What does this fold into?
Amino acid sequence: MTMPSNTVLNVLDEPVFLLDADRTIVYANNAAEKLLALGSNSILIGQSFVRVLRNPEALRCVDAVLAGQMRAQARFELDLPHRAHMRLTVAALETESPAIAVTLKDETALFQAAQMRSDFVANVSHELRSPLTTLSGIIETLQGNAKDDPAAQQRFLNIMQSEADRMDRLIGDLISLSRVEEEERVRPTDTVNLVHVVTAVVASLKERNESTRRVFDFVAEEDKCLVVGDSDQLTQVLQNLLENAVKYSKSGGRIILKIESKKSVPRLNSKVWAVSVSDEGEGIAGEHLPRLTERFYRIDSGRSRAMGGTGLGLAIVKHILSRHRGRLDIASAPGEGVTVTALIPALN
Ligand SMILES: Nc1ncnc2c1ncn2[C@@H]1O[C@H](COP(=O)(O)OP(=O)(O)O)[C@@H](O)[C@H]1O
Ligand SMILES: [Mg+2]
It folds into this structure.
């Protein structure tokens, strides 16, 4: 056969195989070798393609094209060793040897995105339906049993109010999330002093939590901790982190806020400002930590709901920090409280 020029097929990111009419591999490009984790393509060449891939769908396509069809396509999962969603295309060549070309495309990312979208819609529907169910039940009771019971009516109206507030918070967070996602690629342009942001958020939270008398300790390394940022969004970050510390730690525990400079943080090269919120609550077990920024992920959804949580707070925080070229760190051990740190590239 005339070997296809390696330089052409090897620049492709997608694996390409050329097969003879008996399904023997006569050529495999670099991507194909890499995909099948073999050191040298001399191992692939000469082998039966069907044995290398071991997939009935792939076999069906190869045989269809060998039987005269111009093109065949299939989608299947492959363990590589991580589970990958692949699209395989087989096309007839106009030569006898090689007789067919096979390409593979890894569609895992597309597949996961579609999966995430449908999970998200299912979650939103569920979160909206449960307060609605409560409201419908109460309306029925108000029209029936509680018709002439003013005390019960008052009680039910209070529940209706809090369920309506819950729906309102959820919709507010959904709008916030979609706005933040939309803006994520647009860099902020203002100069923001993080000390002002933290001071303002602490003051407004103290006002709202006057009855609980939480102690907030705030220390900043400098009076001016400047970043390029969007002041409203950074306020939202601090509000979320501080509210979580208040909601999920035992009442009476101290909440400590710090702004420190850090250097050589992984993935962020320059100096960053690390804004941390620590509580003295019961902490979070390790297996939950990597999942806390997922939408609707809650360790205890009953408790989160009772506290007015939507499960979207940290997802919003993550997007905002990513827009600021920063990131979020959550450290905890059960029984030792939680420290959540927002890392943002420093301007000064
Ligand atoms: N400081 C904290 N201490 C303990 N658990 C926390 C803390 N912060 C967040 N969490 C956990 O992470 C979950 C997700 O937080 P978040 O996205 O803000 O949603 P929400 O507060 O609306 O439930 C919470 O439900 C809670 O289980
Ligand atoms: Mg929250």
The chain has a mean pLDDT of 91. The chain has three domains: 11-106, 120-183, 185-348.
